[in-house]
Amino acid sequence: MMQRSRREGSFMAPEADRRQTDKSGKFLPALCKAAGTMIISAAILLMLPLAVPKMLGYEVFSVISPSMEPAIPAGSIIYVEDADGKDLNPGDIVAFKRDGDTVTHRVVENRTSEGEMVTKGDANASDDIFPVKYKDIIGRVKRHIPRLGALMMNVLSAEGKIRALAFVCSGAILSLLGAVLDKKDTRKKEADEQKD
């Protein structure tokens, strides 16, 4: 027996009508789940370059000055490992504290007897005016990733943290919505089967 479908007055077998509804009923939940998963995955991937190195013992900094170009461009993220001043050699790139800021320059000379070193930015014409005391050294730069520093500064700002949280929450809400719609569709399908 044929029955009239709700769509455009056409005639369709009840089983075919149910299959059509099943397909459209599964699309939206699947889309919500996929979008939610992609958003959460993107947030995790964004945080990996910051979180994983910290777990491995590196300190992470953003380079805002072009003083180390071309070796380390402005806007890079750097990974710094702990290092003792006396173990640093000319040519090593180090991060150190100066007047409350973090500076990244290359070691020119290590004066172990005085407990200090002379540093210079690769792009600078001359050595830094003041030598760096061993107590101010953060460590040796092991790696850098160009352009990621600007993104890191944006994400770690107060406004950036709020945006990141909203981004993750929207992914979680979409995933939850997909699960609710999927459950609702399953209940409806079970109710339809009991009617038949």
| Second-tier CATH architecture of the domain at 56-146 | Ribbon
Main beta sheet: 7 strands, antiparallel
What is the name of the CATH topology of the domain at 56-146?
A: Umud Fragment, subunit A
Distance between the termini: 14 Å
Share of β-strand residues:
15-25%
Query: What series of H and E elements makes up the topology?
Result: EEHEEEEEEEHH
- What is the fourth-level CATH superfamily of the domain at 56-146? Umud Fragment, subunit A
Count every beta strand, where a strand is a DSSP E run of 2 or more residues: 9
Instruction: Kindly name the structural category.
Output: alpha+beta
Shape: rod-shaped
Low-confidence stretches: 1-13
Identify the strand order in the major beta sheet.
Answer: 3-4-9-5-6-7-8
Helix share, percent: 40-55%
Q: Class of the domain at 56-146, according to the CATH hierarchy?
A: Mainly Beta
Tell me the number of helical segments per DSSP (H or I, 4 or more residues long).
Answer: 3
- What integer is the average pLDDT? 84
Radius of gyration: 29 Å
Description:
There is one protein chain. The chain is α+β, with helices and mostly antiparallel strands and 196 residues long. It has a domain at 56-146: Umud Fragment, subunit A (Ribbon). 45% of the residues lie in helices and 23% in strands. It has helices spanning 14-55, 148-156, 158-195, and strands at residues 3-4, 11-12, 59-62, 77-81, 93-98, 101-111, 116-120, 132-133, 137-145. The strands form 2 sheets. It has a 7-stranded antiparallel beta sheet, with helices on one face. The longest helix is centred in the N-terminal third of the chain and has 42 residues, at 14-55.
